[in-house]
Design goal:
- Chain B: It is a multi-pass membrane protein.
- The structure holds 2 protein chains of 2 kinds.
- In chain A, 40% of the residues lie in helices and 19% in strands.
- By secondary structure, chain A is α+β, with helices and mostly antiparallel strands.
- Chain A has 2 domains: 1-63 and 104-221, Immunoglobulin-like (Sandwich), CATH 2.60.40; 231-318, Sandwich (Immunoglobulin-like).
- In chain A, the strands form 3 sheets. Chain A has a 5-stranded mixed beta sheet. Chain A has a 5-stranded mixed beta sheet with strand order 4-10-9-6-7, covered by helices on one side.
- In chain A, a hairpin with a 5-residue loop joins strand 2 (118-124) and strand 3 (130-134).
- The termini of chain B are far apart.
- Chain B has 2 domains: 31-495, Cytochrome c oxidase-like, subunit I domain (Cytochrome C Oxidase, Chain A, Up-down Bundle); 674-833, Cytochrome c oxidase, subunit III, four-helix bundle (Four Helix Bundle (Hemerythrin (Met), subunit A)).
- Chain B is globular.
- In chain B, the strands form 2 sheets. Chain B has a two-stranded antiparallel ribbon with strand order 1-2. A two-stranded antiparallel ribbon of chain B has the order 3-4.
- Chain B has helices at 5-19, 34-63, 73-107, 116-135, 162-191, 204-236, 249-283, 290-303, 319-331, 333-348, 356-379, 381-387, 391-421, 427-453, 470-495, 536-539, 543-548, 586-602, 606-627, 655-685, 698-723, 727-754, 763-795, 804-833; strands at residues 563-567, 574-579, 636-640, 643-646.
- Classes of the chains: A alpha+beta, B mainly alpha.
- At the A-B interface, helix 2, helix 3 and strand 9 of A face helix 3, helix 9, helix 10, helix 11 and helix 12 of B.
């Protein structure tokens, strides 16, 4: 199994890599499961060849039939005894893996709440302070992180294939998952349980950072928005059009909690929960056409605003670093 | 003086032809003969298969390229929901029942199964419900939250429109039809075998029908219970799945998958059963390991009820549950392996003729074994956490269903086509069809394993470029259209005119269905032979000739009535000549009205729903009154072979009693599912009833229960009075029983009403209401039956000897009394005990 586990990825690397691939692991659970998969695949291939080989041999090649007693022995051994032994061994291996994967203590806790169709992310430090964010997850490499999952509306499922298997976010329940990110890089997570119209547009980038960088980033994320006081980036248009009713920008009058926190929006990699690259053009487009771009989203389209107003809002959003 | 043998045969054939004649013109729709209904059923479910397949092709076209714009998110969600729903509920399960209804009578050498009108009723329900559910997509009103309809998304009426109601009510209606067909098939296998076909001589297909029928009986009711809770939430805002008011969305997942996982095996086993008929024929030897395969099939059936939570590995189950369900899910691979190796061993121990059915059977094996092996992978919780809800699962489930169900079904189509239609399908077209389908299938679904592990979730209407999914998806789409081409070839082969006539028993098979000669003769089998072998056509000399010459049971129909032979459950000793009802429009009319009631409820047309429902029940009453338990003109008749058999049987000797028993087992399972819901809520709440919640008055509940049980006692006394030949006392007692049942049911409803239990406020009152309404409704149905008996007694239909109806009502009474007792134990005793 180990041999297969180390050889096979080399052969299939081109077909299996990617920011969202369970076979290109960057965390402990994902690597264990990828190894398990390659081992099971090798075993499955052997079994498939043996069974289909026997059937094709019997149907097309064999000339003289075997005796009934030999046939019954085949049923007993190949049908019952060998599968029982193989499955028992596999089960023992799998069950041993189970507690190893999901348990563990962590100094960092992140609350992630699924909402149609975005992610409310709250970092909780060891001292209990909470830092609001959204639609992006940053984690320190080599340190376990406890992810606390729940949902505000319907069932979602939290899945970062490169780090670990998925766990559902169910209204009225809280689930816990411990991630062990190991490899520095940027990955992608998605909602895996169908959650409505824009289920396909519910994703988020996952950035695994060196621990010091992570701490520095978290300190920045905790701070209120620092908007350079220029005429093009004031909060006027943003607040005047009611954006602050749903969105919070810490340090300003905008304190809504219905939609994602936007305090450091411009520093995020994507827009609209993993939908678009976070460019100024996309920010403007999303404000203007949210309902068209993301069917079923709660945010109304602001396309009816005067172009200057839209420009002002987009510019303001772009300044929230 | 005695007529010549030739003249006798001619007379008998004319009698049979007249009695079993298939009506023409518009009266064709009044047909109540299982072989005709079976053909309709098969055709309709195959049509739904094609329909759902086209939906899949539209989806594949949408997914061929990233950011596809062929259909919108809303349309795509309807497409994928309807694809799964139709394939599962309108094709995979019904086609089993359809094929079984079609070939079982022949295989059992029975003129007909015992309840042909029930089959017709089931078919019409299926057709009406299927058209209603499938047709919704043309009105942009199809269900759109996935074929397992998870709340709270699917219970939210603002996000999911009428589609969810169409799903719930349309499918509940079809589930009733499925259970009706299961009752017909189980009783058929148990009571309509030819004399001498002891249970261990049955063709394997019959074993599988029995097992799968039993599974339907225990698997569908939990879903019906779930549907009731679900629809109560959608229609009246009862909070079963709303955590804010004490509900829990996970309960639906339990109820759905307690149904949903056995359903996979309900789909898979009947197709294995087809292979179990095909393999011995082409290996030219009896199946090797008959006992092994029967035990393995039974084992699969049992285990399949213990696996449901493996569909829920990602909801955050405790480790102990994960371990248990992982182990059970792995274990089911063992009996499946036994069944596969029974086939392999039979082939190895025979001299195989590699025909088109064998080609499809081998293809089925290749695909199914692969799906089984990925099934072993996903049965392990840690791997499932990655694979779940990704395209890996899409690939896995299609490998198991297409390999385990669709390819064997096509093998069965090529195999059985000759005796059903009298025509041979083309070998050349069969090969084309096979290779197009086999290659297309693998091109479409093999890459999906990788797509899924590279992170693509299922049920997305589009996907971004640059995640490594583009090429894989394009290949899958090409494969899907290749497979569709193969299905097109198959369709052409079946529909094309001018197919050559099939000789009798073209494959030289050993089982009784191949006795069928000219399918244009409507009688099924010319005379019912005594059986001494598992492969009578191989082992019993001159059997076909003697059958044709009418030397066995029921060679004619001198009284001009449709008759079939009823035998004992275990040893198949002849017991009764059963008069089967003939063609009638009543099942069709009943299905239209009952269906109308469900459809009207979907649109909240309450008055129409009530009127339609009442008319439907009335139609069923008229149908029962005119068609069942009729008193024969003579107590017994010559059944042939020097045997005189009674024409009337009641109690456990009658098929009606068995049907009632089986139906009530299913009904009881639905009730227990509601009780399960009650205790489920109890476990998540700690205190149940919750602190401060009003509870129904125990005195009223107990009084209601006492009245209901007293009514049951009077029903028992009524049967005794009838047995003693005292019709006056019978009528008085049965009227008293009905009155007590009404009082009991009324008190059971009064109790929560008087206590002011608000079913919208919290899940506790809602659950109490549901259980009490269920119980009271059962008492009301009992009253209807008691009234039917009373009318029967007054009309002279129910007499001392002819008491089928009364004995069936007594049997129903046992179950109703058990329901009442359980309700009281749960609502009164359980809270006291805590």
């Amino acid at each position: 199994m180990r041999v297969a586990g180390s050889l096979a990825p080399g052969v299939f690397l081109c077909a299996c890599s990617g920011p969202q691939s369970a076979l290109d692991p960057a965390g402990r659970e994902a690597s264990e499961v990828a190894t398990l998969f390659w081992g099971m695949l090798a075993g499955a291939a052997l079994i498939w060849l043996a069974v289909i080989g026997a059937a094709v041999f019997a149907g097309r090649v064999q000339k003289e039939p075997i005796g009934d007693r030999a046939g019954l022995r085949l049923i007993l051994w190949a049908g019952a005894v060998i599968p029982t032994l193989v499955l028992a061994a596999l089960l023992a291996y799998g069950l041993r893996l189970m507690p190893v994967l999901r348990a563990g203590e962590a100094s960092l806790r992140v609350h992630v709440s699924g909402e149609q169709y975005w992610w409310r992310v709250t970092y909780e430090r060891a001292d209990g302070t909470r830092i609001e964010s959204a639609n992006e997850l940053r984690l320190p490499a080599g340190r376990p992180a406890e992810i606390v999952l729940d949902s505000a509306d319907v069932i979602h499922s939290f899945w970062i294939p490169a780090l670990a298997g998925k766990l559902d976010m169910i209204p009225g329940r809280t689930n816990r998952l411990v991630l062990h990110p190991e490899r520095i890089g940027t990955y992608r997570g998605v909602c895996a349980e169908f959650c409505g119209r824009s289920h396909a547009y519910m994703a988020f980038p996952v950035v695994v950072l060196p621990p010091q960088e992570f701490e520095a980033w978290l300190a920045r994320e905790a701070a209120p928005a620092e908007v350079p006081a220029t005429s093009t980036t004031d909060t006027g248009a943003f607040l005047a059009n009611g954006c602050g009713g749903c969105h919070a920008v810490r340090g300003t009058a905008a304190s809504g909690t219905i939609g994602p926190d936007l305090t450091h929006l411009a520093s995020r990699l994507t827009l609209g929960a993993g939908m678009f690259a976070n460019t100024s053009e996309n920010r403007r487009r999303f404000v203007a056409e949210a309902e068209t771009l993301k069917p079923g989203v709660r945010m109304p389209s602001f396309g009816a605003l005067a172009p200057a107003e839209l420009d002002a809002i987009a510019a303001y959003l772009g300044s929230l670093r | 003086m005695s007529e010549s043998d030739a003249a006798r045969r001619k007379r008998e054939e004319a009698e049979l032809r007249a009695v079993w004649d298939i009506p023409r013109g518009w009266r064709y729709l009044s047909n109540c003969n299982n072989q005709v209904v079976g053909l309709w059923y098969t055709g309709a479910s195959f049509f739904f298969f094609l329909f759902a397949g086209v939906l899949a092709l539209i989806m594949r076209a949408q997914l061929a390229v990233p950011d596809g714009t062929l259909v919108s998110a809303g349309t795509y969600n309807q497409l994928y929901t309807l694809h799964g729903t139709m394939m599962m509920f309108l094709f995979a399960v019904p086609i089993f029942e359809a094929v079984a209804i079609l070939i079982l009578p022949q295989m059992l050498a029975a003129r007909d199964l015992p309840f042909p009108r029930l089959s017709a009723f089931g078919f019409w329900c299926f057709l009406i419900g299927g058209v209603f559910v499938g047709g919704s997509i043309f009105f942009d009103a199809a269900p759109d939250s996935g074929w397992f309809m998870y709340p709270p998304l699917a219970t939210d009426t603002s996000q999911t429109g009428i589609g969810a109601d169409i799903w719930l009510l349309g499918l509940s209606f079809i589930e009733v039809a499925s259970i009706a067909a299961a009752v017909e098939l189980i009783v058929g296998v148990l009571k309509c075998r030819p004399p001498g076909m002891r249970i261990n001589l049955m063709p394997l297909y019959c074993w599988y029908v029995l097992i799968v029928g039993g599974m339907i009986l225990f698997a569908f009711p939990p879903l019906i219970a779930g549907d009731i809770l679900f629809e109560m939430q959608r229609l009246f805002d009862w909070p079963f799945f709303d955590p804010a008011r004490g509900g829990d969305p996970v309960l639906w997942q339990h109820l759905f998958w307690i149904f949903g996982h056995p359903e996979v095996y309900i789909i898979f086993l009947p197709s294995i059963a087809l292979l179990a008929m095909i393999v011995p024929t082409f290996a030219r030897r009896p199946i090797l390991g008959y006992g092994w395969i029967v035990l393995a099939a039974v084992g699969t059936g049992f285990l399949s009820f213990g696996l449901w939570a493996h569909h829920m590995f990602t909801i955050g189950l405790p480790s102990l549950s994960l371990g248990f369900f992982s182990a059970a899910s792995e274990a089911v691979a063992i009996p499946t392996g036994v069944q596969i190796f029974v086939f392999v061993a039979t082939l190895l121990a025979g001299r195989v003729i590699f025909s088109i059915p064998m080609l499809f059977a081998t293809g089925a094996l290749a695909i199914f074994v692969f799906g089984g092996l990925t099934g072993v992978m996903v049965a392990l919780a840690p791997f499932d956490w990655q694979a779940h809800d990704s395209y890996f699962i899409v690939a896995h489930l299609h490998y198991t269903l297409i390999g385990g169900m669709f390819f064997p079904l096509v093998a069965g189509l090529y195999y059985f086509h000759p005796f059903i239609t009298g025509r041979m399908l083309s070998e050349r077209l069969g090969r084309w069809s096979f290779w197009l389908m086999f290659a297309g299938f693998n091109i479409a679904f093999l890459p999906m394993h990788i797509t899924g592990l590279r992170g693509m979730p299922r049920r997305v209407f589009t996907y971004p470029a640059d995640h490594g999914w583009d090429g894989l998806n394009l290949v899958s789409t090409l494969g899907a259209f290749t497979m569709a081409a193969g299905i097109g070839v198959l369709l052409w082969d079946v529909l094309r005119p001018g197919k050559p006539r099939a000789p009798r028993n073209p494959w030289n098979a050993g089982t009784l269905e191949w006795v069928a000669g000219d399918p244009s003769e409507p009688w099924g089998i010319r005379s019912v032979p005594p059986i001494t072998s598992r492969y009578p056509l191989w082992d019993q000399r001159d059997l076909v000739r003697d059958i044709d010459e009418g030397r066995f049971f029921l060679p004619g129909a001198p009284e001009g009535r449709r008759e079939t032979l009823v035998t004992g459950v275990l040893d198949a000793e002849p017991q009764q000549v059963l008069r089967v009802p003939g063609n009638s429009f009543k099942p069709l009319i009943a299905a239209v009205f009952i269906g109308g009631s469900f459809i009207a409820t979907t649109f909240h047309w309450w008055t129409a729903a009530v009127i339609s429902g009442v008319l439907g029940i009335a139609a069923i009453m008229v149908w029962l009154w005119t068609g069942t338990a009729t008193i024969p003109e003579t107590p017994e008749k010559d059944a042939g072979m020097g045997t005189r058999l009674p024409l009337y049987a009641s109690g456990s000797a009658s098929v009606g009693w068995w049907a009632m028993f089986i139906t009530m087992v299913g009904d009881g399972t639905a009730f227990l599912s509601l009780i399960f819901a009650y205790f489920y809520y109890w476990t998540i709440h700690g205190a149940f009833p919750p602190e401060g919640s009003p509870t129904p008055d125990n005195g009223l509940l107990l009084a209601g229960g006492a009245a209901a049980v007293a009514g049951w006692g009077l029903t028992l006394l009524a049967r005794r009075a009838n047995g003693a030949g005292r019709p006056g006392l019978l009528r008085a007692l049965i009227a008293g029983a009905a009155l007590l049942a009404l009082i009991g049911g009324g008190l059971l409803i009064l109790a929560p009403w008087q206590a002011g239990l608000d079913s919208v406020a919290h899940v506790y009152p809602a659950t109490v209401w549901v259980i009490l309404i269920w119980t009271a409704l059962h008492l009301a149905v009992g009253v209807l039956m008691q009234g039917y008996c009373l009318a029967g007694s007054l009309a002279g239909r129910l007499t001392r000897e002819h008491d089928i109806d009364l004995r069936n009502v007594v049997l129903y009474g046992h179950f109703a009394a058990l329901t009442v007792a359980t309700t009281l134990a749960v609502l009164v005793l359980a809270p006291l005990a805590m």
